[in-house]
């Protein structure tokens, strides 16, 4: 008997569960008037001077391939930015690879480093694609649960206790998606000691590094003894409001980058040249606009934190990224039940916490990269649901109706209209 079409699919892919966010994407798409706090995408449009650099490159006929490694001028700019910001130096010719977003950089790093059966340690809750990408690379995921009582911060003793002879990689993401947690330098130094002692490799996704509101971001590769064993991932999506441009990069030991480049040249060739030209402009002249956006996120961070606490939901203070992760157990609902009822009854979309791993159960992820109008209305509607579930509120915080004018060149795209879920990296 012939095999069915389903039976012919690679079992690794066939048996992989779909993203926990997917069902909510579909539900939101079918519901009108939804305010979305689910998508991890800035509501700002890319600053004009960055868009203009792209337009200018098209006018000048830049429509060809670049080097597989990316534009050399862009790699020099990335190296300069990392050296000036964190004091960590990379050779632009051999230690930096420009990729199609950080998601591709992560995939390349895992496929280049993971052998069948290798164990990859991942703090949890974690970004939804980490575990599946490890599985697709042939590795075994070992989750390291973190909770609100520890500030969702990974501790060195957790790493030490999880290490086996098959452990090869520790995958870090701080500031964290979905919790907004950051790791201070002391904690990272303690973790680095364990990493070095057990000869592990670190893949550090630092896409939210510029969005740190409390303390200063510590680049893992800048720690003593860590540069040569760290693959540093970063990009332009979050800090410069360039999610759709799909430009990221990986930095690391020349042998690691050469291995990743081999996969990249056979599967992707290069990131689009016009997007690379725009990224170059962002690094050259985008800091002031980026800092204005960060200040605006910080204002919204305070708003949502106090609003959740006022409505009676315990909420860890997010110190980075642009997500809040309130606990919703007091409502008597699971994460999925809360998100589904909130969507159906109040037309507000959030992401159930268990989409980020089992330790996220009892929480929901809310992005505050939305306009103040949308945030205020979404929080008002959420408070109504929480009150109907019998939770006693305190004073409900609401934003001012008189909003400041946007900074020139950094206009908001969301406004008072509903935002739309996108199924990409978020």
Describe the structure.
The protein is an alpha/beta fold. Helix content is 37%, strand content 12%. It is built from 13 helices and twelve strands. Strands 2-8-7-6-5-3-4 form a seven-stranded mixed beta sheet, with helices on both faces. Strands 9-12-11 form a three-stranded antiparallel beta sheet. A two-stranded parallel sheet has the order 1-10. The longest helix is centred in the C-terminal third of the chain and has 24 residues. The protein is globular and about 60 Å long. The chain starts with 10 loop residues before the first helix and ends in a 38-residue tail after the last helix. The C terminus is likely disordered.
Furnish the topology, listing elements before pairings.
Elements: H1 11-14, H2 22-29, E1 35-36, H3 48-59, H4 72-86, E2 96-99, H5 101-113, E3 119-124, H6 130-136, E4 140-145, H7 156-162, E5 167-172, H8 185-197, E6 201-205, E7 230-235, E8 248-251, H9 254-267, H10 273-285, H11 287-310, E9 323-324, H12 335-346, E10 348-349, E11 351-352, E12 364-367, H13 372-388
Parallel strand pairs: 1-10, 3-4, 3-5, 5-6, 6-7
Antiparallel strand pairs: 2-8, 7-8, 9-12, 11-12
Domain Aminotransferase class I/classII large: 33-381
EC number: 2.6.1.-
Organism: Desulfofundulus luciae
């Amino acid at each position: 008997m012939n095999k069915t079409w389903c039976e012919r699919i690679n079992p690794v892919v066939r048996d992989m569960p779909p993203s926990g966010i997917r069902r909510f994407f579909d539900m939101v798409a079918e519901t009108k008037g939804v305010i979305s706090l689910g998508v991890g995408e800035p509501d700002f449009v890319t600053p004009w001077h960055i868009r203009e650099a792209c337009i200018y490159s098209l006018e000048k006929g830049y429509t060809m391939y670049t080097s597989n490694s990316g534009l050399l001028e862009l790699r020099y700019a990335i190296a300069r930015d990392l050296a000036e910001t964190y004091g960590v130096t990379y050779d632009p010719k051999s230690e930096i690879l420009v990729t199609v977003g950080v998601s591709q950089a992560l995939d390349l790093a895992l496929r280049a480093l993971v052998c069948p059966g290798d164990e990859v340690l991942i703090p949890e809750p974690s970004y939804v694609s980490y575990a599946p990408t490890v599985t697709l690379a042939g590795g075994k995921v070992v989750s390291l649960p973190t909770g609100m009582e520890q500030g969702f911060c990974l501790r060195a003793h957790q790493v030490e206790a999880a290490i086996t002879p098959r452990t090869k990689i520790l995958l870090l993401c701080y500031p964290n998606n979905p919790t907004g947690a950051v790791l201070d330098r002391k904690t990272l130094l303690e973790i680095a000691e364990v990493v070095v002692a057990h000869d592990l490799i670190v893949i550090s996704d630092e896409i939210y590094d510029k969005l740190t509101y409390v303390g200063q971001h510590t680049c893992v590769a800048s720690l003593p003894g860590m540069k040569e064993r760290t693959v540093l991932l970063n990009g332009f999506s979050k800090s410069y409001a360039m999610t759709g441009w799909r430009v990221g990069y990986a930095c690391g030991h020349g042998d690691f980058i050469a291995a990743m480049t081999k996969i990249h040249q056979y599967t992707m060739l290069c990131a689009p040249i016009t997007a690379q030209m725009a990224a170059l402009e962002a690094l050259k002249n985008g800091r002031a606009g980026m800092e204005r956006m960060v200040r605006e996120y910080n204002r919204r961070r305070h708003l949502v934190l106090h609003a959740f606490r006022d409505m009676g939901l315990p909420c860890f203070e997010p110190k980075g990224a642009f997500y809040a992760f309130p606990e919703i157990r007091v409502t008597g609902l699971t994460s999925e039940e809360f998100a589904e009822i909130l969507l159906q009854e109040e037309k507000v979309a959030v992401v159930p916490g268990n989409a980020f791993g089992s330790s996220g159960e009892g929480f929901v992820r809310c992005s505050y990269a939305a306009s103040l109008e949308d945030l205020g209305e979404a929080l008002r509607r959420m408070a109504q649901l929480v009150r109907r579930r019998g939770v006693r509120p305190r004073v409900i915080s609401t934003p001012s109706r008189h909003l400041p004018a946007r900074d020139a060149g950094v206009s908001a795209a969301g406004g008072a209209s509903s935002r739309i879920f996108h199924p990409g990296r978020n």
